[in-house]
Amino acid sequence: MQMKTKALSLLLLCCLALPLKAQSYQPTEENLKARQEFRDKKFGIFLHWGLYAMLATGEWTMTNNDLNYKEYAKLAGGFYPSKFDAAKWVAAIKASGAKYITFTTRHHEGFSMFDTKYSDYNIVDATPFKRDVLKELADECQKQGIGLHLYYSHIDWYREDAVWGRTGRGTGRPNPEGDWDSYYTFMNNQLTELLTNYGPIGAIWFDGLWDQDQNPDFDWELEEQYALIHKLQPSCLVANNHHSTPFPGEDVQIFERDLPGENTAGLSGQDISSLPLETCQTMNGMWGYKITDQNYKSTKELIQYLVGAAVKDANLLMNIGPQPDGELPEVAVQRLAEMGEWMKVYGETIYGTRGGCVGPHPWGGTTQKGNKLYVHILDLQDKALFLPLADKKVKKASYFVDGKPVKFQKNQAGYTLLLNEVPTDIDTVIELELN
Ligand code: JFZ
């Protein structure tokens, strides 16, 4: 008895001694539910839009060309995206089958694409356009029934109080030290506006932490910032493109330019967590509008990338850089429409699924919903496909597209599908009914 009490008090002591920080983030019920809904959505469209669209060489032009911050700011006086029509954007994006839009509210250039009290350097106060494009977009997303997520940069190449990192050093600002307290307060004030004035926000998508990678002790005070977001909107997911495994307070793990587990772009290699996963990728090669980049991925590549994400249990966030005149590039709109045609037929094998019990293979992979296993064949030069399903019982196999039966053989190690011909579709989906 005494031993037991002793053991108990020891346990209690240990619990109390644990650093408070490690225990401090407990996602709420709403947040956990939002995570599952996020995973169900599978497909979002990223929009990188800012003053940089006018320079038409991507969103990093300010730092890449060491443009002076006061000169750069003059772009605002000429920003008049006369063809901007939120209803048209949202309709084109919805047609792709995407379920959410992630919009750059303020990118590294430091210009706010929304109405903010905390800086005049914003689209309403500093441009002749004078319209809060974020408000128009938010209203339209509500109306057309699509989620809205907000990108928010932790770096700022314009503000004098922003602490310098590895980028933005040649923009002519006077003080490398900045004023962290002032800048941190500014960011939290803006985040409060974003989470108060624009209806329900699906996620805040942070970016820029890697700018201090040569100063690893830099304290971004993330936990307090994350807590503010969760307090304002408990179901808003916090994501951060820091290229590491998630930190406390985050609800999503982001990958950039690579699917989880791959690292062709050199920005990945981190472990994969159990949080919802999202990979962002460009439709051509650049995030912000780049006039010379017509190197768009084909519809087939885009669809296969989306399927590749789904079999890896990840969402795909596919980017478009809107033009300075306010329109989406025509090629991008075409790709959206073609992806949407495919999703109309095959959406059932993507939305609401999770990565299936047969993992990714060079030929493709599987998604799963209940007792249905969808085999996505993307690249197979054979009529036979072996599936390592030794511990499963397959009741039925059929082509998803027309329900025609697929023959299969069972052996010790699993099942072999015997297709009628070598698959040539973008994605030949075989539906298996498991017991
Ligand atoms: C970041 C942004 O810088 C970029 O503009 C875009 O928004 C993308 C989605 O996210 O991409 C990065 C991140 C890190 C580095 C470069 C680009 N890096 O470490 O040099």
Strand content: 15-25%
What hetero molecules are in the model? Answer: 4-nitrophenyl 6-deoxy-alpha-L-galactopyranoside
Low-confidence region ranges:
10-22
Task: Count helical runs.
Answer: 12
Number of strands: 16
List keywords for this structure.
8-stranded parallel sheet, 12 helices, 435 residues, binds 4-nitrophenyl 6-deoxy-alpha-L-galactopyranoside, 5-stranded antiparallel sheet, single chain, alpha/beta
What does this 3D model show about the protein?
With 435 residues, the protein is an alpha/beta fold. Helices cover 28% and strands 20% of the residues. The protein is built from twelve helices and 16 strands. It has helices spanning 2-17, 20-24, 29-41, 52-55, 61-64, 69-72, 86-94, 133-144, 180-194, 222-232, 299-311, 330-346; strands spanning 43-47, 100-106, 147-153, 203-207, 237-240, 253-256, 277-282, 314-320, 354-355, 364-369, 372-377, 384-387, 394-399, 407-411, 414-418, 428-434. The strands form three sheets. It has an eight-stranded parallel β-sheet with strand order 5-4-3-2-1-8-7-6, sandwiched between helices. A hairpin with a 2-residue loop joins strand 10 and strand 11 (372-377). Helix 7 packs across helix 8 (133-144). It starts with a helix and ends with a strand. Bound molecules: 4-nitrophenyl 6-deoxy-alpha-L-galactopyranoside. 4-nitrophenyl 6-deoxy-alpha-L-galactopyranoside is lined by residues 59-60, 207, 210, 241, 256, 280, 287.
